[in-house]
Amino acid sequence: MNWQNKQVLVAGLGGSGVSMIAFLQGQGAAVSAYDAKLSAERETQLKQRFPGLPCYTGRLNDALQGVEILALSPGISERTPEIAAFKQAGGRVLGDIEILAGLLAQQSGKIIAITGSNGKTTVTSLAGYLCEQCGLDTVVAGNIGTPVLEAYMQRGGRPADVWVLELSSFQLENTDHLNADAAAVLNISEDHLDRYDDLLDYAHAKDKIFRGSGVQVLNADDVMCRAMRRSGREVKWFSLAQPADYWVEGGSGRLKAGNNDLLAAADIPLQGLHNAANVLAALALCEAVGLPRTELLKHVQTFKGLPHRVEKVGEKNGVVFIDDSKGTNVGATEAAIAGLQSPLVLIAGGQGKGQDFTPLRAALHNKARAVLLIGADAPKIEADLQGCGVPLEHCHTLQAAVRRAYEIAQSGDIVLLSPACASFDMFQGYAHRAQVFVEAFEAL
Question: Where does ATP bind (predicted)?
């Protein structure tokens, strides 16, 4: 797209927003900026970096006057009445992923795109790692940390062999032309229901990752994913429950591709059965862009995994402590519990984002000695789990919950921090929550 002299408003001034300002100014667009909560200090910072940048706060409508294109950060829903009216009047709304799609359409590199309620950061990191280890010039960006346009500008427009993108439903809402060579929806479970009408509405946003003609990688065990199959497209299925293109043979614990043996689940350095599914998805994506299986299987066994995703932090008197602070929704916590074989004490709670916690009842059955509840939505979780046959206790702090969990646990058990909630009621983010957990463990 030719951005020269286009009147563009960038709304939302976090990492994605700032990268859009930098990119669009560099392309000659007339850029202004908006944030509903723009502090004087933040405005000063922005104007130091972008001299003369018009900045707006308060009413979005005032900022939209004379604007042709609204470049939206993922944190803002385009269903906001002012934005819906702007579109109705012929204004164009897009985000950084759609801008990147236009740039990559002019280059020859491959695109691997990954979304899902759970596991997407692990699969993105693993797929990126495998591409790098196989010798490809690889960019890993998106929801995983580096905004995509920042990554693009860092390269000075130099093409990459492959872009590996983690995409949230928010980023996909206004992404229409990505056309990934291989794309995956790993699973769909309740998340962000404070933004979407219902689970189906949320799934529709995820499904936009398949716009284009590339290979679809889908979870055969997930009813929503099964419904995303598109006719005339190559589909690769992965499963923990049944034979598929990529699957785990129940009795043997072997990962397989059709009838071909790949490796033992025990040879994967990642904890938990759900990570076997993540490995299968990453293998499917990497093979779909032409990487050789023998190389991939060799490198899978050297991938260390991610901090705060079912990560063992230590052991005391036979009790293992596992940090899954990045488990910020019910599906993630369900997967973490299901993937661990030992009896456990679960620490959960925080900001629940409107979720239903009842699916945890089945996951906890015959597995948990107790659930210790923290944070703002502890009463809601307690109400949803009441009568599930597992003792429920409230703790005022995470430190208190760690001490209580250690009292309850027996040698051979696991203490699992997997909150199923966002962290901002008590912490600066999930990494801060993990840090407090680790410090409380070390203080035992």
Answer: 116-122
